[in-house]
Amino acid sequence: MEKNAYLTDAPILAQPFMAEFSAAAGASILFFGIVRQLSHGKHCHYLEYEAYEPMAVEQIESLKSEALQKWPLEQVTILHRLGRIYPGEIAVAIDVRSAHRDDAYQASRFLIEQIKHQVPIWKKEYFEDGTCAWGGCETTQSPETFDSNQWQWSRERELANELF
User: Fold this and answer.
1) End-to-end distance of the chain based on CA atoms, in angstroms?
2) Distance between CA atoms of 56 and 153, rounded to whole angstroms?
3) More confident: 137 or 43
4) What average pLDDT score do residues 143-150 get?
5) What is the mean pLDDT of residues 114-133?
6) Does residue 146 lie in a domain region?
7) Which domain holds residue 133?
8) How many CA atoms lie within 13 A of 22 on its CB side?
9) From CA 9, how far away is CA 1, in angstroms rounded?
């Protein structure tokens, strides 16, 4: 069931993202974030994605607008799956089209990194050994470059979980 233009409970299929190319776009960068079977050295049984949907939609729309301002893009399509997702299934799909490949590559990388860091979408990993863990955005920041915004999102997620 389609939730809106950016979030869905339905499986994301690769084929629709590869259809309907235009003559204006010389490059189309397709990014598919796929649930992997091994995570943290354990076999993943499935993931569950949750979102604070009104804010997630607003944030994704804002990131899309920012990408369209930074690079001369022909089209940007973003779709993130919510709910239970199994290894091998697509969790997020991004299609960025532009006249030139460099713009499309840069915009695609920008979008996936910002979605992971800024958008209130959280995943919980369920492992075959019966354990589970909340997954987060991996960061390479050292303690000296602590990002208070990143901490704030983690704290907001913890508070939201306490309320629900």
Assistant:
1) 23
2) 12
3) 43
4) 44
5) 92
6) no
7) 7-139
8) 10
9) 6
Please name which of 102, 12, 76, 24 lies closest in space to residue 49, comparing C-alpha atoms.
12
Reported as half-sphere exposure (CB side, CA atoms, 13 A), residue 55 has a value of: 11
- Assigned domain for 19 exists: yes
Of 134, 145, 114, which is closest to residue 50 (Cα–Cα)? 134
Q: Classify residue 130: in a domain, yes or no.
A: yes
Give 77-110 pLDDT, tens digit per residue: 999 999 999 999 999 999 999 999 999 999 999 9
Q: Are 111 and 53 in contact (CB under 8 A)?
A: no
Q: Which helix (H) or strand (E) holds 56?
A: helix 53-70
Which amino acid is residue 131, in one-letter code? Answer: T
Global pTM value: 0.78
| Residues forming a β-bridge with 30 | 95
Residue 11 maps to which CATH number?
3.90.1170.40
For the cut 50, the answer to whether the pLDDT of residue 1 exceeds it is no
40 falls within a domain: yes
Residue 23 structure tokens = 């003559």
Residue with tokens 């996936």: 112
Token look-up 């990014």 returns 31
Residue type, 84: R
User: Do 102 and 137 form a contact (C-beta atoms < 8 A)?
Assistant: no
